User: Which sequence fits this backbone?
């Protein structure tokens, strides 16, 4: 007769990039249930808003996540602009979206490398991270930083990126495209990758909808939702945008969605470089958020929807700031995906969800 | 200005939290967030629901200090993260959370760190036997071994 066992998994594990713990309830090698536990790296960053003024806080919010660093300053800056009812120059909005999409490429390539490493496919891991280096190189060349580059701030962006540099970026992306297609072939056609991902971590569309999954995790279960559809910022300038969706509902579908999103982001950047508006990129921010005034914002980060809230108190400090990252919505889905799988697949399932626990705890 | 959603919240009565959640579920809305804001004598609780491929709706209610809030996890399972978080950081008590960590969701060394008015019914002490496993894992007092006694 099969015996039930509770197996502690994490928070430290070779394939887990971030600290998350599961109590896996096993019957032989089959996972019957999983109880997640986070909370190992809570940093109290929301509370810091009472100590740092709303401009200084841009640097704090950038450090919420090492991968979505630009995306969080993008979301926070828009939030403060909503709070102060400020219009920013069109070129600044264009540059923000270009850099945000570049961040998506670097995030997905980073994830692809980690996934390949977890498969034990070392060459693929190195190939993915080699490509990511080109994006980081462009960040360094134009902003001075590779991951944390403090480029976005309330009022616009810190400095302009010349049209020549932007044309150089398009050239970089054009040379990267065939290599990303090769990478995509390895991820999507290689039998060893398929054996670790196809039919594993299955979440049907209805269950995904009930659990409220966001980002590539939700889109891989057929949820065609993406905040970029609403056309905020310069996304409204795109001639056409439809999210990448798969109805595979398994780990393989999550790989497929992310790889295709890299190619989609390249097309978005090319289109915006063509359409970029001339003019200034920063306006001075004057005034303080009025006491009791609230603002909300949402941004489609590489991992999904982020939610921002601010409450002014009439001084240079905010009364309250709230940041909800995509992983907070995806944790119930992670448990759903793990239930019923084999123990050896748990690490792969967790990885294909791409959780960012440190950002979730803030 | 690039405001994506309306920068205002719809006020509702705290007694209608479950009714609102049922209503949103029936409308096909997705649950997106709960967060608390400390105000005089209580909290504002914000509930956010998002229309698929559409805009967000933010709802706000007032909860007096000490009032128990009904959990919406039977309707939206993903709310368990937010209700446990709001309990641990603000001390707002929730009733009926489907996965209740009873205050061990965040490993913080003080109770309700984001609520300066929080008055604990019990003295705050660090548990020397704390283990970082989930609520379901039974914890046992650590018995010092011979080896430990020698080290001491």
Assistant:
């Amino acid at each position: 007769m099969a015996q039930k066992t509770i197996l502690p998994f994490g928070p430290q594990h070779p394939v887990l990039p971030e600290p998350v713990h599961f109590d896996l309830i096993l019957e032989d090698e089959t996972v019957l249930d999983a109880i997640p536990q986070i909370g190992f790296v809570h940093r109290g960053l929301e509370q810091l808003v009472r100590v740092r003024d709303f401009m200084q806080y841009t640097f704090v919010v950038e450090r919420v996540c090492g991968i979505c660093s630009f995306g969080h300053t993008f979301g926070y800056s828009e939030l403060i602009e909503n709070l102060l009812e400020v219009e920013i120059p069109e070129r600044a909005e264009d540059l923000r979206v270009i850099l945000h999409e570049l961040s998506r490429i670097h995030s997905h390539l980073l994830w692809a490398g980690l996934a390949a490493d977890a498969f034990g496919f070392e060459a693929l891991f190195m190939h993915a991270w080699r490509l990511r280096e080109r994006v980081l190189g462009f960040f360094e060349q134009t902003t001075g930083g590779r991951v944390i580059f403090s480029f976005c701030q309330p009022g616009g962006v810190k400095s302009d990126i010349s049209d020549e540099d932007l044309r150089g970026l398009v050239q970089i992306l054009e040379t990267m495209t065939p290599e990303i297609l090769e990478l995509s072939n390895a991820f999507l056609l290689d039998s060893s990758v398929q054996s670790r991902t196809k039919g594993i971590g299955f979440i049907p569309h209805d269950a995904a909808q009930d659990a409220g999954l966001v980002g590539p995790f939700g889109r891989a279960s057929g949820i065609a939702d993406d905040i970029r559809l609403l056309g905020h910022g310069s996304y409204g300038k795109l001639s056409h945008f439809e999210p990448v969706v798969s109805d595979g509902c398994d780990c393989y579908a999550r790989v497929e969605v992310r790889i295709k999103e890299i190619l989609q982001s390249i097309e978005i950047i090319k289109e915006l470089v063509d359409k970029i508006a001339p003019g200034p990129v920063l306006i001075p921010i004057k005034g303080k958020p009025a006491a009791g005034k609230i603002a909300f914002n949402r941004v489609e980060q590489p991992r999904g929807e982020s939610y921002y809230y601010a409450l002014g108190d009439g001084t240079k400090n905010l009364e309250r700031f709230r940041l909800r990252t995509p992983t907070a919505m995806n944790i119930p889905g992670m448990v759903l995906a793990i239930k019923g799988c084999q123990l050896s697949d748990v690490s792969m399932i967790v990885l294909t969800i791409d959780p960012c626990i440190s950002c979730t705890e803030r | 200005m690039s405001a994506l959603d309306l920068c205002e919240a719809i006020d509702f009565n705290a007694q209608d939290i479950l009714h609102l959640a049922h209503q949103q579920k029936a409308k096909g809305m997705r649950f997106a967030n709960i967060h608390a804001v400390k105000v005089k004598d209580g909290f504002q609780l914000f509930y956010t629901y998002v229309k698929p491929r559409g805009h967000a709706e933010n709802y706000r209610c007032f909860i007096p200090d000490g009032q128990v809030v009904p959990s919406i996890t039977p309707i939206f399972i993903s709310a368990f993260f937010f209700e446990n978080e709001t309990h641990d950081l603000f001390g707002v008590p929730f009733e009926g959370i489907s996965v209740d960590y009873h205050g061990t969701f965040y490993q913080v060394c003080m109770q309700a760190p984001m609520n300066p008015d929080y008055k604990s019914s019990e003295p705050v002490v660090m548990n020397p036997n704390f283990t970082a496993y989930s609520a379901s894992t039974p914890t046992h007092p650590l018995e010092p071994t011979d080896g430990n006694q020698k080290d001491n």
